[in-house]
């Protein structure tokens, strides 16, 4: 069960789960074999949820312990904090403690408030820039929130991929050969190169008439592995993916389509890096990504992404967050298994080591960073861009960052040589300047929103504007 052994007070989440399932307190108490008064005390946060009841709840309702953790609350508090930083709310400041209380006591109301603000911000953008009106939440945002709700772990799909891997006849670690043989024996498909694929913007295509899988030539072997795993997931596990989406997926048509793509990619990653084997190798190597990728014959990015999904009940790995972005700071992927929450508005903090990685391509950058909620993370960042194939080719510049709490960081090889007790060199990072409350940051690009600015003549800070403390005018 959870790695963190502190007492778990999860009353609102327990009550929300019970109501979602249409159960009375008496019914749930009977399922858990406890008294009605005991359940009532847990729902009112008068008693913590013990490990054995947490295990029973997860098994009975097919959920992970993440459902009850405060990670979800931390992300929502961050979203509220950024929203309340809008000048729109300058006359009604809300302390962070009140935001946390609101998220804990009324999560559905906070969701509705955030959705309303997104709609307002979208309409404001339309009026200011005369762009086409967009939905309150874009499909990719819906899917991102949905994946985050599951803590980037889908048990049925993960187990299906693992069982499929174990059923293969893999000789001398040649997974690609085994996947190609399976596609030929079960589907009559053979692999063939097609030099025109890249010009058409395709990474693979099934030619059903000639029973071939067309792939670009000269691509990295780990990419071919991933594409073959994608195809197997599409051909053999689409029913399972559909069942997951119908049962608990997003409702918007475009969001469902994107979620289907995501789950197909999830299956592929789980097939290349089967859960139990990966967890064992990660422990043996102290999560050395280079050692893990050589063991499985995959890429640095594939290992990093997969490490952020290891949240199987009873077999949890380190809860990592994973982020992928381009050199302009555009977020391409973002998943978090811990309290770390990315800014929803504005770009990432320039002090983050993921930006330093672009200056040292292919080298790992390690950083201890502290967010504005005083949490300290061990982050590793590295570029994962491919090389250009020709002079005219302009490959996208991409970097990733994988991070965990400083406590979990001690379990990784990346803590070697770091004084984890000395926090004097910890880098303070923020959620983006608009919502960041750090006044002494010389990297600030604009004032914090929603606070009264002090531009008095008696002193001048590292930036020409300082915000008065919350509640002061």
Automatic annotation (TrEMBL):
It comes from Acetobacter peroxydans. Pfam families: HTH_3, Peptidase_M78, ScfRs. InterPro entries: Cro/C1-type_HTH, HTH_RamB, IrrE_HExxH, Lambda_DNA-bd_dom_sf, ScfR_C, TransReg_Diox_bact_type. CDD domains: HTH_XRE. This is Cro/Cl family transcriptional regulator. Keywords: DNA-binding, Transcription, Transcription regulation. It comes from the Bacteria. Residues 14-68 form the HTH cro/C1-type domain. GO terms for cellular component: cytosol.
